[in-house]
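Per your request, structure below.
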């Protein structure tokens, strides 16, 4: 290769790197303090953020997997503040304990968007919230059960999500609200399975030891817990689903959860929609443009029930619905 061509290549390389660094500087920097990787729902939510907050879309995303560790999540947010990122998104592991770090973000002038779950802090402490109404999810599960039982007795075991997480608190409270109107229902026990398959399985195993033959409803506060509970019931020879002795209710309605619903193993699956990043991006775009933005945006959910079940509260599963579920 002659020197002239080399020189042109070198100039081209310098020009390309100048363009690259100029465009890197133009990217909007966003930190996402993600809960962890405890469930299929969470994996789908992480992928959604990585797809939406891409360099092609004008963003540089720092996504920190906090592994369900509250202290690690506070540290992640503090690191975002130290780095001076343009925006901070938090999916709170715990609903309580956010005031100090939110004040630090405010003092640094960094807008904060709370996503997915809720926090116990005054709305003036953060800039926007995007998420689902988990109390309504619990109410939907309760209404569906009441409709199906039609006055019959229920002996219920509940596997809750992570202690202190608003998704667990909301679903527990919403279901309890419906249950208060049903003296024929009894909550035999309610324990945390930490939103994981292993957690669901070990709680169900201990429930079986204490309550075998005494329960006819199992509620799992996410799909992964339901997979664990199904394994435990299979091992104990307990039948569940539309042809079983136990009604199984789950939350999330991720792809595999809906497959089990279509197969009649899960009777009712109440959706919690993990596809939220585009909505968060819309809020940030309005902030960037100095336009008014929604302080609160609710991501809509629905519920699904197994074939053969008709319900006012849930859509009966079909192959088409499952085929359309990408996560
Ligand atoms: O906050 C949403 C909940 O967190 C989902 O139901 C669960 O799967 C996840 O871990």
């Amino acid at each position: 290769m002659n020197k002239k061509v080399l020189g042109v290549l070198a100039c081209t390389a310098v020009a390309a790197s100048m363009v690259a660094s100029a465009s890197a500087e133009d990217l909007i920097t966003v930190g996402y303090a993600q809960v962890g990787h405890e469930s299929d729902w969470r994996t789908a939510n992480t992928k959604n953020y990585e797809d939406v907050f891409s360099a092609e879309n004008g963003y540089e995303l720092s996504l920190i997997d906090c592994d369900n560790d509250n202290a690690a999540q506070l540290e992640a947010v503090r690191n975002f503040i130290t780095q001076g990122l343009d925006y901070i998104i938090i999916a709170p592991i715990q609903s309580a304990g956010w005031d100090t770090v939110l004040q630090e973000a405010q003092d640094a002038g960094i807008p904060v968007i709370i996503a997915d779950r809720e926090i116990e802090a005054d709305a003036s402490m953060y800039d926007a919230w995007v998420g689902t109404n988990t109390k309504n999810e619990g109410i939907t599960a309760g209404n569906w059960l009441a409709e199906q039982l039609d006055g019959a007795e229920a002996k219920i075991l509940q596997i809750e999500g992570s202690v202190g997480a608003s998704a667990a608190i909301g679903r527990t409270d919403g279901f309890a609200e419906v249950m208060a109107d049903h003296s024929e229902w009894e909550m035999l026990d309610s324990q945390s399975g930490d939103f994981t398959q292993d957690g669901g399985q070990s709680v169900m195993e201990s429930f079986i030891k204490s309550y075998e033959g005494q329960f006819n409803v199992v509620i799992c506060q996410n799909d992964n817990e339901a997979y664990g509970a199904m394994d435990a019931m299979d091992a104990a020879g307990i039948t569940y689903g539309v042809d079983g002795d136990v009604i199984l209710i789950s939350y999330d309605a991720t792809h595999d959860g809906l497959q089990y619903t279509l197969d009649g193993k899960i009777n009712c699956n109440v959706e919690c929609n993990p596809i939220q990043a585009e909505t968060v991006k819309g809020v940030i775009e309005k902030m960037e443009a100095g336009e008014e933005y929604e302080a609160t945006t609710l991501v809509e959910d629905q519920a699904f029930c197994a074939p053969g079940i008709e319900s006012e509260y849930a859509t009966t599963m079909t192959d088409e619905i499952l085929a359309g579920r990408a996560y």
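The longest helix spans residues 3-26.

Regards,
D.
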